[in-house]
Request: fold
Amino acid sequence: MSNLALLRLILLLSAITTCCCAVFSRKDMDATVPQIIASNGYPIEKHRVKTEDGYILQMHRIPAGKRSARRSNTYGGKGKRAVLIVHGLLGSSGDFVIMGPRNSLSYILADAGYDVWLGNLRGNMYTTHQNLTRNDPAFWDYSFHEHGKYDAPAMIDKVLNVTGLSKIFYIGYSMGTTTFFTMMSQKPEYNDKLIAFVALAPAVYIDNMKEISVFFLKSMDIATTLRQRGMLAVGLKQDIMDLVAENFCTAKNPDQDVCMRFIYAIVGEDYEQHNWDMTPIIIARAQPASWRQLEHYGKIAMTSVFTEWDDGMEGAVKPYKLSNVRVPVSILYGENDLLVEKSGILRLAKSLNETGVLHSIKPGCNWPKFNHLDFVFAKDLGKLVNRPLVRHLDELYNKYYQQ
Ligand SMILES: *[C@@H]1O[C@H](CO)[C@@H](O)[C@H](O)[C@H]1NC(C)=O
Ligand SMILES: *[C@@H]1O[C@H](CO)[C@@H](O)[C@H](O)[C@H]1NC(C)=O
Ligand SMILES: *[C@@H]1O[C@H](CO)[C@@H](O)[C@H](O)[C@H]1NC(C)=O
Reply:
């Protein structure tokens, strides 16, 4: 995970040392998620969620598909199925709408009749705090431990409250799955509020990140250094991100590309599934993270244990209780995912199988180069992953849903 921080730093340096001007359509870079959803003709609602510790999260809801929305304004009703989708590191609700109605999960689910709720975890642009500003170091004092303890439960309760349903689906991507597992360890009563959990590229065992974590977080200790120099969070000001995106990430083929090559070194290479128009948009839309998030992942990588942060990197190793999970879990992974390698996913599956909650584990699709980011940005995402995923959700519903 720490190499994402490195990526940011290097992009920053490149931005400062070079300067040129590109004329660029800023629409997809700057539009908010509700604007994007509305521009695609789908109904959109914003919901405000307050966590126990004062963070305010904006959720984005697509309560119905395009057609049913035109037919009537009454959503819900009998047999309605709601799904909460939780994003990954540096992500937001935008990750599930940005590829458009043919590809992005939100639209495909909504058109299939699902009531779609997109979560936003503390730290990204759709979140604030009741007493703290983003310039307060305390705002950034969290990791996915708090995402799991406070944010996910508050969002689940909001969905249940608004829909009146007793149970919903939870789909997590990458850190959105880490959040699920930390939630269940700390608040197992949330098992009762879910039908099933779909884990896309789950980030729980990341031994493959051990060396790089040791280097950046221990030997160099970049987190402490940059924190001391006043860099409160991992991420750049939006205008700098835009500058980088517009000037370095506009190549249209692998020979001229620096941006994707860099990202692929971290997540696995898959040029065939890359939509070149998306490179600057992916960069410009990346969200900040807390240093603690990287450090916590680093501790997990270094110890090979899915451990709490507790007293920090050198503090006690205190495993989260994966055995607290009682809802069926279905895992999808990328064969070419360098960030969360298959060996780690199999280890997670084995542990869930031992407690009897593993429903299935399989590749996200049959494309051998499918990488970590392909779960949100692949060119043929709809056909490869998301349409089959909706059918999978239907199966899970029929098998596991009881009032
Ligand atoms: C925010 O400030 C109010 C008023 O000072 C206080 O009552 C409340 O506990 C604070 N909330 C948090 C989460 O710190
Ligand atoms: C939703 O929350 C409100 C306010 O707390 C409460 O009055 C209402 O009964 C809740 N509705 C449902 C369906 O849980
Ligand atoms: C799960 O456990 C059963 C036996 O309890 C075994 O047959 C099956 O292969 C295991 N599946 C996975 C994916 O580990």
About this structure: The two ends are 40 Å apart (CA to CA). Residues 144-163 form the longest helix (20 residues). Confidence is low (pLDDT under 50) at residues 13-24.
